[in-house]
Hints:
Mean pLDDT: 97
CATH architecture: 3-Layer(aba) Sandwich
Strand content: 5-15%
Structural class: alpha/beta
Largest sheet: 6 strands, mixed
Number of domains: 1
CATH class: Alpha Beta
CATH superfamily: Class I glutamine amidotransferase (GATase) domain
CATH topology: Rossmann fold
Number of helices: 8
Number of strands: 8
Oligomer: single chain
Strand order of the largest sheet: 2-1-3-4-8-7
Amino acid sequence: MTARILHVVTNVAHYDDPTHPTGLWLSELAHAWEVFEQHGFEQTLVSPAGGRVPLEPRSLKFPAYDKVAKAWHEDPARMALLEDTLSPEQVDTEAFDAIFFTGGHAVMYDFPGSEGLQRVTRELWEQGKIVSSVCHGYCGLLDVHLSDGSLLVEGRHLTGFAWREEILAGVDKLVPYNAEEEMKKRGALYEKARLPFVAYAVADGKLVTGQNPGSAKETARKVAALL
């Protein structure tokens, strides 16, 4: 049977300061999509509000804008997928085998507070399916409570965009919170690579996470291996 992946993308187009645009970091979606496509998996996009997904302008510049991201950006059919994503209310979790939270700083705003995404994630996890994220995508896991009231991330090994990377990216004064610190506060066993921006992915059972944009492919491969 063909495995089915639910990619989570953002609807947010700017930081608190509207003069600073943000959005989906395209290569994170494009690289994971390519890996899953090579395995013949079916793929669907969902966002907190449904509908259109803005792109992070910096993800359309070198080096983030590599041949995989460029191919997506120049493909009208692929770009059309970002104009009409599902909302969580339209998702039947029985129809999916894994969820993959993509990143971009925008997700810090609309992923954590989405009760719809929390429901989808909780149901998939409790059905024994894979929950995964890359880079800031792990913000979508911050407040996912399981049916027994516990946090999904508590006591589990994971990774995501590090605070050191925020500083080096020059956005530590723009972001709404320190995601690494918030994860640790929730009891997550946060890990990161020894050097910033190096590809790094962690699998703790059916929880699979990647640290930064360059980790999307490795994270997707770990998900595919579990499937």
